[in-house]
Amino acid sequence: MELLSAARGATWRCCGRLLTRPFSQAARRGDRPGGEELSRLLLDDLALPPRSAGGLELLFGLSPCLLALRAARRRVARLLLQAGRSGLQGERAELLRVAEARDIPVLRPRRRKLDVLCRYQVHQGVCMEVSPLRPQPWAEAGESRPGDDPQQLWLVLEGLQDPRNLGAVLRSAHFLGVEKVITSRKNSCPLTPVVSKASAGAMEVMDVFSTDDLAGFLQAKARQGWLVAGTVGCPGPEISPSSEVPITSCLDFLWDQPTLLVLGNEGSGLSREVQASCQLLLTILPGRQLPPGLESLNVSVAAGILLHSICSQRKGFPVEQKREQHLLQDPQEPWPLSEGPSLTQHPGLCSGSAKQRQDGD
C-alpha cells in the first residue's frame, strides 16, 4: 500500500512537471505580446498568482523583494533565499539582515524548488511570501487641487490588462517622476507579483490608486484646474474628424500646467466616454510610412516616450540643463556628449551590475 501511494505521488509530480513545462519553455523563449497584444497573451500571464495559506502570494525577484521590505506595505510571512549560492553579499545580504531584524523566518530551498514555486519565472534566487498589494481607493486619497507648481504630472490608466505592460509602465513612471498613478477598477490588471517583477519593484514604492468612475474623476480634476491629456495612435478612422478634442504631437506639447496623462487599453485604447473627458489628445508621429498592423506602439513603449517628452520640460531635468548650457555657449562649439546624469536613483531601480542584468531585473 505504501509503495502504491509513493508511485501515485511520483506520477502526480511528473504530471505536474508536464503541465508546467510548456509555459516554462514559452517564458524562456522571451515571447511577449505585440501588435494586437491581448490576443497574444501567454496563458501564464493571465493565470492567478500562486497563493498559499492565509491569502498570501509569492513575490519573486531581488528588487521587488528588497523594495517591498523597505517600503513595509506588505505583511511578510517568510523569506526564501536560494541555497547553494557562494555567500550572500550586497542586496541579498541586506535582505537577510532586514528579515532577521524583523523576526521574519528565512528558508534556504534549492533552486529547483524555487523554480516550481515561481512557475519558472526569473526569481534570481529570492522569493517572499507576502500579503497582496492592492490599489488604494481614490476616495481615501482625498481631492487635492493642483497648487502652485504648474509642472505636476499624474498618470491615468484605463483597462491595462497585461501585467508585464503594467509593470513596465510603472517602472517608467517612477523613473521619470510621475507623482501618482490612477487606474480604472474595471477590466484592469491587479497588482500581482508579475507586475512587481516587470516594474523592477517600482510597484512596491509608488502611490497607485483606483476608481470606479474614471470619466467622472477626469472631469472633476479638469474643474480643479488640471489639464486632461489623453493619448491616441496615429490619427485614423477610429478618431472622428469632427471630434472637438484637438490632437497634437507629443513633441509640440507645452507642459505649463498640472497634467493628467491618460493611457488606454492595449487593444482598444481609450473608451469613448474617457476620450470625451479629455481636453487634448497626444500622439506619437511615426518616422516612416507604416504598413497595416504596425500603426501603433506597445502601450509601455508609448508610455515611456510620452512621459519623457513631457518630463524633459521639467526645470532641472538633465536634458533641459544641457540645452540651457548649450544656448549660452559659443555657436561654433559642439554640444558636449552626455556623460550620464549624476542623479541619486531609488535603491533597487538603478541599472545594477552586469551580473544582475544577466540574471534579470
Automatic annotation (TrEMBL):
Function, as annotated: S-adenosyl-L-methionine-dependent 2'-O-ribose methyltransferase that catalyzes the formation of 2'-O-methylguanosine at position 1145 (Gm1145) in the 16S mitochondrial large subunit ribosomal RNA (mtLSU rRNA), a universally conserved modification in the peptidyl transferase domain of the mtLSU rRNA.
Top-rank lineage group of the source organism: Eukaryota
Domain RNA 2-O ribose methyltransferase substrate binding residues, every copy: 58-136
Family (UniProt): Belongs to the class IV-like SAM-binding methyltransferase superfamily. RNA methyltransferase TrmH family.
Entry keyword set: Methyltransferase, Mitochondrion, rRNA processing, S-adenosyl-L-methionine, Transferase, Transit peptide
Localization in the cell: Mitochondrion matrix
Primary location: mitochondrion
Gene Ontology process terms (BP): rRNA methylation
MF terms in GO: RNA binding; RNA methyltransferase activity
GO cellular component: mitochondrial matrix
Region annotation Disordered: where it falls in the sequence: 322-361
Species assigned in the record: Sus scrofa
Catalysed reaction equations from the record: guanosine(1145) in 16S rRNA + S-adenosyl-L-methionine = 2'-O-methylguanosine(1145) in 16S rRNA + S-adenosyl-L-homocysteine + H(+)
Protein name as it appears in the record: rRNA methyltransferase 1, mitochondrial
